[in-house]
């Protein structure tokens, strides 16, 4: 069996893979190569190098392992028609992402930007307000693997968690869960609004200016899902009008965020350059998931960890 | 009965107190007044305006309520000889302090200083390492009310917690607890070393340069107790030699930290100007504790919430 990596992993990780699966032929390339593509049964990719044509070339491919969580750039229809199994490393982002979200929330509440600024100026300044996270209510759009981990951590800080998903079915570590059509009724309750929604037809521009007017003045909005959740101009308007207290943005409509974007200079905005899911432990964890899945695959199992519905986009 | 406040609280808080206890005479002064002192049975103070002479004047005082947690500046011996009950608002610092400690830890792990700096420069920069808190081991010096709350939060982040106290008796939310004489054996285990120790004869200069050499290179040291835990010169030497990764300091040998202190400029130091226990909810909470205690006091109970052993200093 041939497993084709369209990227070149760290030597120690490659070595451990080759040692653990002596019966498999592993091909590692820095870029995608049509000849190799035509021969591979399993494809390992970051999910940004495939299109319909590549899928046609990859005639033998039965499983694509995506070493990231986003699959927006993949040719969904072509993959679905061929019945190719797609799985990703969804769970891998859970811990680092949730820790980043808590870091930003606590930093704002406990005045860390103020502390850092005064240190730069060598100023002993105690004149600021420090707030507490405990006792808040958080609205979590997309209480999936990451959202539930965020909910678990928030609950440890005595935060009341309300999940919002398609079905309204209860989700782990949510005190309540509601369906998306209840969104407008729920927004006024939120001290914190966190989105970890993927980009789908349903979530694109889900929020607009009006939604922000329904939030409390002191609400903190965090977008850690995808940048097209809200039009940047709507968000800027809401922030300029102080409809909310602060926005922490890890994702943007255009990335990198253009140098002339107003967002850079706004005092009530934190610009995180889409790094919140990163971790020094990322690749090790990807490989652990891949190895478990490859073992299953070779045993003829097809119900892999993080198996995705490519047409639904998650 | 006369209750004398040596500070002037917010009008709404005073009003609610007077309404709840119509049988009590409340005196509120901005400074300490000897005539009032001589008449009061209960004294409410921030703990920094009393000396032996004042205690001698306060002949009728049987209970001192300290609306802060530090009692270093109080005349311990004189108070003990008179058998005056002393209680403070110890528990009140628990939540804000623990949230500050977690804020700083997560901020360092998740690269928030890097993110803020790049935003100032309007630079989209992803070139940094992000680490995770989960999986770490934290050594907590002083697992009391605050330390245990820190332990509870750390455990929610899958951090292994080791408490170190006088007796070695187990403390809440500590995976292990040891006595102080085991300190040198424990230091090499710590990814994080947190002190919340009060200033006592036993804790003064408890840590010296040698202790820092026993810590891991990547260890984060957090002093949120008192500044005389370690000589500043020892700490600076350890930091210059990169014996540890970072120090987050909320307390200092001299406060405010002098403008010419080397600490201000060190890249591996965070200077928090002794504000980590502050909270917008502080006074409300103090008053809640005081009201509960006053009710007990009027019922003849003397075993008050947060009753202190003034000679031991905690």
From TrEMBL, chains A, B:
<dbReference type="InterPro" id="IPR006139">
    <property type="entry name" value="D-isomer_2_OHA_DH_cat_dom"/>
</dbReference>
<dbReference type="InterPro" id="IPR006140">
    <property type="entry name" value="D-isomer_DH_NAD-bd"/>
</dbReference>
<dbReference type="Pfam" id="PF02826">
    <property type="entry name" value="2-Hacid_dh_C"/>
</dbReference>
<dbReference type="GO" id="GO:0016616">
    <property type="term" value="F:oxidoreductase activity, acting on the CH-OH group of donors, NAD or NADP as acceptor"/>
</dbReference>
<feature type="domain" description="D-isomer specific 2-hydroxyacid dehydrogenase catalytic">
    <location>
        <begin position="14"/>
        <end position="302"/>
    </location>
</feature>
<comment type="similarity">
    <text>Belongs to the D-isomer specific 2-hydroxyacid dehydrogenase family.</text>
</comment>
<dbReference type="Pfam" id="PF00389">
    <property type="entry name" value="2-Hacid_dh"/>
</dbReference>
<keyword id="KW-0560">Oxidoreductase</keyword>
<dbReference type="GO" id="GO:0051287">
    <property type="term" value="F:NAD binding"/>
</dbReference>
<keyword id="KW-0520">NAD</keyword>
<protein>
    <submittedName>
        <fullName>D-2-hydroxyacid dehydrogenase</fullName>
    </submittedName>
</protein>
<dbReference type="InterPro" id="IPR036291">
    <property type="entry name" value="NAD(P)-bd_dom_sf"/>
</dbReference>
<feature type="domain" description="D-isomer specific 2-hydroxyacid dehydrogenase NAD-binding">
    <location>
        <begin position="102"/>
        <end position="276"/>
    </location>
</feature>
């Amino acid at each position: 069996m041939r497993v084709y990596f369209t990227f070149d992993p760290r030597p120690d990780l490659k070595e451990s893979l080759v040692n653990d699966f002596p019966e498999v032929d592993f091909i590692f390339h820095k870029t995608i190569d049509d000849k190799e593509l035509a021969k591979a049964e399993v494809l390992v990719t970051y999910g940004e190098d495939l299109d319909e044509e590549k899928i046609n070339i990859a005639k033998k491919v039965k499983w694509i392992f995506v070493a990231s969580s986003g699959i927006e750039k993949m040719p969904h229809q072509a993959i679905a028609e061929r019945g190719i199994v797609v799985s990703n490393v969804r769970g891998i982002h859970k811990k680092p992402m949730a820790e980043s979200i808590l870091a930003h929330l606590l930093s704002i509440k406990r005045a860390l930007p103020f502390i850092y600024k005064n240190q730069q100026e060598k100023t002993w300044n105690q004149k600021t307000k420090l707030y507490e996270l405990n006792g808040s209510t958080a609205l979590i759009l997309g209480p999936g693997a990451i959202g539930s981990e965020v909910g678990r951590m928030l609950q440890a800080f005595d935060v009341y968690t309300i999940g919002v998903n398609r079905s309204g079915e209860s989700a782990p570590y949510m005190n309540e869960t509601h369906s998306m059509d209840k969104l407008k009724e729920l927004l006024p309750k939120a001290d914190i609004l966190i989105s970890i929604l993927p980009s789908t037809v349903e979530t694109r521009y889900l929020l607009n200016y009006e939604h922000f007017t329904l939030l409390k003045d002191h609400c903190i909005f965090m977008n850690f899902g995808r940048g097209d959740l809200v039009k940047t101009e709507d968000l800027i308007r809401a922030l300029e009008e102080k409809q909310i207290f602060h926005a922490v943005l890890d994702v943007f409509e255009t990335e990198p965020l253009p140098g002339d974007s107003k967002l850079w200079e706004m005092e009530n905005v934190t610009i995180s350059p889409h790094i919140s899911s990163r971790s020094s432990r990322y690749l090790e964890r990807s490989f652990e998931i891949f190895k478990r899945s490859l073992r299953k695959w070779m045993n003829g199992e097809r119900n892999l960890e993080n198996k995705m519905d490519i047409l639904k986009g998650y």
